Amino acid sequence: MLRRTAPSLTALALTLIACEPGTVSMSVELRTDFVPGIEFVAVETWAEDGPGAHDEVAAFRSDDYATAPRRVAEIDGLAPNAERRITVRLLDADRAEVARRTVLVEHVRDRGVTVLLTRSCRDVTCGAGESCYAGRCQPEACETVGCVSECSVDADCLAAACASASCVAGACFLEPIAGACPAGTYCDAEDGCLPEPTARDAGVPPVDAGAGSDAGIDGGVDAGTDAGVDAGSAFRIAEFAGGVATWTEHLTTGDGPTGPIRAAFTSRAAEMAVVTDDRVHYLDGRTWQWVASAPRATVFPDLVGASIWDAVLVSGTNNLVFYGPDGAWELTWSPTTRSATFVAFTARADFGADWSDPDAAPWFSMYGVFSRPDDGEGWVTADPSTECPGHFSVGRNLVMVATDGFGPLVMNVSIYDVDCPFRFIEKTTSSMFAPFTRPGAPSVWDAEAMVYLRGSLVVFF
Question: What predicted TM-score, i.e. pTM, was given to this entire model?
Answer without folding.
Answer: 0.55
